[in-house]
């Protein structure tokens, strides 16, 4: 029995690792698509694409996966991909936005609607929750091995056109207007190695998930995250401290 139990424990750990790796690859694929869509499929003329391809190599992402994401942006292979954002309410009335990239709108809409319904939420109309979020450019520079203090980084960010910066023990988070993200990124990239560079949604207010809705809420987020068409899930919610 001990050998059987050990086998299952190893399989369980491997399954968790594979799932985590799959989510990393999914995010990188999204970033590759967006970078190639915005700046073209050739890395020599697209600094953002080069940055994401470097992250893909660091994560040991297969070359076929990388090329597939770039081909999607280029329209190769015959499939047409659409970017769609769904808005809805999770358990307890929490606001959620779901950003998707799909070659089949009907399939994706049905899956997202089903996830909300199964877990006590509901999809809303366009604009139903987006007003609760602020769209910003978001750049992350890791502090590990970086010989730059907070004041110097702030000055460089502001000189590049950023709106704000937040420093943590591990990284500098730089915020820009969406229209300025590319120019700020390019200016900072001349001096620093960027870990993240994207436009994303940030909640303006946070609602705590009711204690009796935590299981439903986490189930909803997990189901959305596991959908291959889902690129990002933006939440204007937090779990109670005793549930984290």
Account of the protein in words:
The protein is of the alpha+beta class. It is built from seven helices and ten strands. It is 45% helix and 23% strand. The strands form three sheets. It has a four-stranded antiparallel beta sheet with strand order 3-1-2-9. A four-stranded antiparallel beta sheet has the order 5-6-4-7, covered by helices on one side. A two-stranded parallel ribbon has the order 8-10. Strand 1 and strand 2 form a beta hairpin. Helix 1 packs antiparallel against helix 2 and helix 1 runs parallel beside helix 3. The radius of gyration is 20 Å and the shape is globular. The protein starts with a helix and ends in a 6-residue tail after the last strand. The mean pLDDT is 87. InterPro entries: Integrase-like_N, TACO1_YebC-like_2nd/3rd_dom, TACO1_YebC_N, Transcrip_reg_TACO1-like, Transcrip_reg_TACO1-like_dom3, YebC-like. Keywords: Cytoplasm, DNA-binding, Transcription, Transcription regulation. It holds the Pfam family TACO1_YebC_N.
